[in-house]
Amino acid sequence: MADLRREESSRPARRSRPGWPTLLLLLAVCYAVAALGSVAAAGSAETYQALDRPSWAPPGWLFGPVWTVLYGTIAVAAWLALRGDSSRTGRVPAMVWWSVQLALNLAWTPLFFAADAYGWAFADICLLLLALAGTIVAFGRRRRAAALLLLPYAAWVTYAAALNLSIWLLNT
């Protein structure tokens, strides 16, 4: 009996993985960022239509559906990264990167639409791309699927950065 207790006490403590409540919290955070961005973008449809845009600019109606899907994948990717393995190794850096990219994402909309500061918005989106790259690397160390889920987001933000730059150059 003593040998059994000693064997049990020598096993590493099993760490719990974040469950569904954590996923719901991450979804709430991401969609709160989306909601705050939409408040900052009040009147953005008219602003976007009035801008000189490149021929490859998407129609304004496309942004809402694309971002709705992307914010969901951003949350699920974070949840998968947190669940990456039973150890906590790398959790904090991964979530710091995730938080930084989300804050930069939130900052872009008021810069571009509310302040009409296209140059500052471009600087912000460039920093967002760097933070997103850091997030993808950190998530990849935790769980490959988490990093892969962020690739469509990275592609869209890269496209948005090119669009931002083009609009800035065409409207200054």
What does this protein look like?
The protein has helices spanning 2-10, 20-40, 44-50, 63-82, 91-114, 118-142, 144-149, 151-170. It has 172 residues and is an all-alpha fold. The longest helix is centred in the last third of the chain and has 25 residues, at 118-142. The relative contact order is 0.14. The mean pLDDT is 91. Helix 5 runs antiparallel to helix 6. The protein has eight helices and no strands. Helix content is 77%, strand content 0%.
Keywords:
mainly alpha, 172 residues
SSE blueprint:
Layout: H1 2-10, H2 20-40, H3 44-50, H4 63-82, H5 91-114, H6 118-142, H7 144-149, H8 151-170
Roughly how much helix do the residues carry, as a percent range? over 70%
Q: What's the Cα radius of gyration?
A: 20 Å
Please give the count of helices: 8
How many distinct beta strands?
Answer: 0
Helix and strand succession? HHHHHHHH
Strand content: under 5%
In brief, what are we looking at here?
77% of the residues lie in helices and 0% in strands. It is mainly alpha-helical and 172 residues long. The protein is elongated, with a radius of gyration of 20 Å.
